[in-house]
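Board notes, transcribed. Complex of a protein with heme C.
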Amino acid sequence: MTAQPLSGTHHSTANGWFAVASILFISWTLVGCQPPKPADATPKQYDIIDVKDANKGVGTYTVPQNTAIMSEPNAKQILYGQRLLNETKRLLPDNTGANMNCNSCHIANGKVPLGDPYINSFNTYPTYKARAGKEVNLKERINGCFKRSMNGKPLKPDSQEMAAMIAYMQWLSKTVPHTQTVNIKNAGKIDKNLEPDPVRGEKIYQAQCASCHGANGEGKKDQLGIIAFPPLWGDESFNIGAGMARTYTAAAFVKYNMPMGIQTEGLWGHGGVLSDQDAVDVAQFFSHQPRPDFPDKVNDWPKGDKPKDARY
Ligand code: HEC
Ligand code: HEC
């Protein structure tokens, strides 16, 4: 007797949900929303342009597949370089102070525009850098990331590890002549006039980031102690000399690459989940949490041109 009305209620609730779902489905079809597209495995292509004349298209660049490395004469060296960039902490513990790999920031083997790609690195350097106040070559640029982003020690410029990392970057751009460049941006645009609100940023952090990067920014390791999600602050993170310690550099990265895993295009993504203001707020919050100092900071921007979000 008692079971009857209960199951009846349950039944009508289920019908109710079915009706709501149908209406939602019909209106969703009518307004033309598309379900998320599956990840696209087709290699991405971008224009190659002349360095001196950005309007002059000179060809098409196809992001190379890893399997293509095997047909290179120095395949072993390139693969070693790729492993070093992916597993830096494990393979180069003496040079890596942070619990971080190069590719914790250089997303998907440095192959993704707006995710700090290495695609143009081999052709870009040497180039003038305001932070150094002089021309910097690729080895010095890599060692800059070792000292700052990895809170570690530079590699010997003539070491086989340095040569291997550069071999990987050279392979990435091997179809691009030195006087030309792939028409992509290393970092996305962010409105630098927005005032950061770190209190709002902390709320965004706890809602959108903490599940992977930890409630205290400490990141997460797997059962072997290897980084699964890299730390965003604390002793194991990048130091204050890193680009990522600056609000707008961090915001530009976060806006186009984080939170990771809810993108509908490509392997990793550019969900555009956060607005510029969200990205600036959360970036201000995590970048200004306690992190290691950078003793060499006194030598930065010797000729001025300090960006507005510089930390010192
Ligand atoms: C915490 C994030 C982070 C980590 C870890 C990191 N980098 Fe970077 N790297 C950046 C950012 C951000 C830039 C560019 C912006 C800047 O300099 O402020 C950059 C720039 C570079 C560039 C220049 C790219 C170009 O084309 O101009 C190279 C090369 C590079 N990094 C290599 C490395 C290597 C090798 C490692 C590991 C030893 C590494 N990075 C670790 C964040 C990081
Ligand atoms: C689903 C898990 C996930 C979420 C959620 C997530 N991230 Fe990440 N994040 C990652 C992974 C994984 C990496 C390293 C990239 C890699 O290994 O390919 C990373 C790297 C980073 C890095 C560069 C490396 C470092 O440790 O400094 C920053 C900065 C970052 N995330 C910020 C954020 C912010 C801010 C949010 C929230 C808006 C967020 N992430 C949400 C997984 C996540």
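The first strand starts at residue 45 and ends at 50. Residues 251 and 280 are 5 Å apart (CA to CA).
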